[in-house]
Design brief:
By secondary structure, this protein is α/β, with parallel strands linked by helices. The protein folds into two domains: 2-125 and 277-309, Medium-chain alcohol dehydrogenases, catalytic domain (Quinone Oxidoreductase, Chain A, domain 1), CATH 3.90.180.10; 128-253, Rossmann fold (3-Layer(aba) Sandwich). The chain has nine helices and 16 strands. Strands 3, 5, 6, 7, 8, 15 and 16 form a seven-stranded mixed sheet that branches.
């Protein structure tokens, strides 16, 4: 099968096209013929070597942790899915990723793709959508009436976090550039703070929840907008215990745990028109296509999700 691999850490040019063997599946897995995948910051962070201590993979590495496609083979213990099913998943974090024509996926990580959803839309949801869901629902326990600040609302996680928060009846503020204000309000944001001109902490007070996807000074400043007992969850960097104690805030770092049943929640929200996905750019499945997609993701200014059309 065709795959895009890396044999060393480095810039986007280390992404190389290669023909390799199809993966073999275990009894509780399916072999998924991938029709689309998507780009997430973890992809280029692994490629650049930033996560080599956390994820000590052996080379060659196939990056990519979003998949949508059709089941072409299933293990003997797989009972909830059949060959021919349209499914999507955030597969387990291994060195056998989704920049490939086929990948092996554990049954418990799969969800059916809604009939009305394209493979490209499906591939754009799992990692970013599950991250947003777990941060807001599992970690902070979002509820109706909460005031929630979501940083980088136009990014991959942000677009889903805004919609999930609104589905729970929260008031949602987000930070973004001026050009994205109308777009983010169309997703449900109640207030958009232009981070290029304004200090969000001067406009927002007494918030219950902050979802931080930026870290650094933005994370530190975020404590100022939270009420005592408020919650900050970061996917950028572990929060400072000292800062959290200073502001009497519950602050945590979250690393995604793939879960098929939660992905089904997102699929149900899509079908009930509570959730839509925004595909900013689509690239072809090639060495050049993946290199261009990584370059765009690394700018931190892509709107919505970056998708790779595999088949």
């Amino acid at each position: 099968m065709k795959a895009i691999v890396i044999d060393q850490y480095g810039e986007k040019e280390v992404l190389k096209e290669r023909n390799i063997e199809k993966p073999t599946i275990q009894d509780d897995q399916v072999l998924l013929e991938i029709h689309a995948t998507s780009i997430n910051p973890i992809d280029w962070k692994v490629r650049a070597g930033y996560l080599k201590e956390m994820l000590p993979f052996e080379f060659p590495i196939i990056l990519g942790w979003d998949a949508a496609g059709i089941i072409v083979e299933k293990g003997k213990n797989v009972s909830r899915f059949e060959v021919g099913d349209r499914v999507f998943a955030r597969p387990a974090t291994t060195r056998q990723g989704t920049y490939a024509e086929y990948t092996a996926v554990d049954e418990n990580l799969l969800s059916q793709v809604p009939v009305s959803m394209s493979f490209e839309e499906a591939a754009s949801i799992p990692l970013a959508g599950l991250t947003a869901w777990q941060c807001l629902v599992d970690i902070t326990g979002i509820k109706k009436g909460d005031k929630v600040l979501i940083h980088a609302g136009a990014g991959g996680v942000g677009i889903f976090a805004i919609q999930i928060a609104k589905s729970f009846g929260a008031y949602v503020a987000t930070t973004a550039s001026e050009k994205n204000e109308v777009f983010l309000k169309s997703l449900g944001a109640d207030q958009v703070v232009n981070y290029q001109q304004d200090d969000f902490s001067e406009f927002l007070q007494d918030y219950d929840i902050v979802l931080d996807s930026i870290g650094g000074d933005v994370q530190s400043t975020s404590y100022k907008v939270l009420k005592k007992g408020g919650k900050l969850v970061s996917i950028a960097q572990p929060p400072s215990e000292e800062e959290a104690q200073q502001y009497s805030v519950d602050a945590r770092f979250h690393w995604l745990e793939p879960k098929g049943e939660q992905l089904q929640h997102l699929a149900d929200m899509y079908e009930s028109n509570e959730l839509k996905t925004i595909i900013g750019e689509t690239f072809e499945f090639s060495e050049q296509g993946l290199q261009e997609a990584h370059a765009l993701s690394e700018t931190h200014h892509a709107r919505g999700k970056i998708v790779i059309k595999v088949k």
